[in-house]
Amino acid sequence: MARRESLIEGRWSVVEAELWDREALDLVVPAYIRFDRQGLGEMQLIAIGASIDYRVEQRDGASVVEFSWDGFDEMNATSGRAWARIDGDTMRGKLFVHHGDESTFVARRERGVQRVSASKATRRRGRPAARTRRGRRGGVASAKASPGDRSSPRRGAAALAAANWHREEDAQAPREVYEFRIVLRDVAPPIWRTIQVPGAYSFWDLHVAIQDAMGWLDYHLHLFRVSRPDTGDAVQIGIPDDDAFEGDEPILPGWEVPIARYLTGPGAVARYEYDFGDGWQHDVTLEAIVPRRTGIRYPRCLAGGRACPPEDCGGPAGYENLIAVIGDPSHEEYESMLEWLGGRFDPERFNAQTVKFDHPGKRWALAFGETAQNRRRGGRRTPKRR
User: Fold this and answer.
1) What is the dihedral of CA 52, 58, 59, 62, to 10 degrees?
2) Which residues contact 378 (CB under 8 A, 6 or more apart)?
3) What parts of the chain have a pLDDT lower than 50?
4) Fewest CB within 10 A of the end CB: N or C in the chain?
5) Measured CA distances, 57 to 5, 122, 386 (Å)
6) Are residues 368 and 279 part of one domain?
7) How far is it, in rounded angstroms, from Cα 225 to Cα 248?
8) Residue 101, Cβ neighbours under 10 Å: how many?
């Protein structure tokens, strides 16, 4: 006898909902529910990305699917349940958000689904938004870029649907957590963090987690350098440079590359560079792969030591000078340095419990020019210029 699950295996587009219009449903990516084998799958609608656990039953001569789901709505953990009656290539049912909304919905089976890649999506030019030292999450390009600086490439920006955190294989990925130790090079005493991230993360997602855990403000470009597990060849991952010279090493788009492809087991190391002007180098070491724990929100910061250096302080050498100056009230630059720092800076201060992580999809949208809030209003965000 055929498995009942085979009746619905595949991807279904959510085309209608009582509570949300189509623009809201497709806020981040075109809304869908995907049913895989073994009763697992995933759901993406509005700003919710979730894993699902489903079963199919026969009721009154009709096939009915029931599923529970668990995931995130932007930065907030969320969960719920749903049911739907299956009629050929159409399902009609109701979705419930725990302690929240409920709505009827209609979904239709997709045929010949193709994934949109960043390189083929519509591109638009524009620089990311500026932000003050007190601001958060504006852009990824350097404020001090010059024509010869690597931090000023013209970058293509893909539509949100291309972002890798909604990639097709998420539901197939094991529910594992990757534990990394991040150490800032050429600084003593060491500045370090230990973080855990979902095993299904892309390199863009990991970049966002590193930025937030360290305390960087994501003003500048970044680059991962890793080795192919099979050949040892060097690979660069980050934001592709549309104006790269012939013969330059290609840069793979981080939102399209899962970390599990190159960081395959404990001991694997990536070099992470942030701000090509100041040249902050980090060693990112995979220390463990552990099961995901129920009730725990990921990513999370487990531990760390010492404060992140201030942005644009001149790299390790500039930071060493900064520490020397603020440690000597008699220094001629003492007052001006404190003023530049905003009044004070404690290099020893760090508390892992205060680390807040942005949703990587939200950061991607902010960096490349369109916010979820403006999409809800039907408008677009125009990147500010420095």
Assistant:
1) 100
2) 23
3) 1-2, 113-173, 370-386
4) N
5) 9, 42, 58
6) yes
7) 14
8) 13
Task: Tell me how far apart the alpha carbons of residues 278 and 317 are, in angstroms, rounded to a whole number.
Answer: 9
Task: Output 105-108 pairs: Cβ under 8 A, ≥24 positions apart.
Answer: 105/14, 105/16, 105/17, 105/18, 106/14, 106/15, 106/16, 106/17, 107/12, 107/13, 107/14, 107/15, 107/32, 107/33, 108/12, 108/13, 108/15
Nearest in space to 220 (alpha carbons), one of 308, 153, 159, 163: 153
pTM of the complete model: 0.57
User: How many residues in the chain?
Assistant: 386
Q: Which residues of 268-284 are buried (b: 16+ CB within 10 A; e: fewer)?
A: bebbbbbbbbbebbbeb
* Token code pair at residue 120: 């083929």
Strand partners, 225: 236, 271
Tokens 């180098």, residue located: 281
Q: Which domain holds residue 15?
A: 4-109
Q: Which of 75, 92, 109 is the last residue of a domain?
A: 109
Residue 223 sits in a domain of what CATH number? 3.10.290.30
Per-residue pLDDT tens over the stretch 163-211: 444 443 444 445 799 999 999 999 999 999 999 999 999 999 999 999 9
The verdict on 240 and 366 lying in the same domain is yes
Q: What is the DSSP letter of 245?
A: P
Q: Which of 66, 94, 109 is the last residue of a domain?
A: 109
What the block records as the tokens of 117 is: 């890649």
Secondary structure (H, E, C), 180-205: EEEEECCCCCCCEEEEEEECCCEHHH
Q: What is the predicted pLDDT for the residue at 241?
A: 81
| 173 and 245 together in one domain | yes
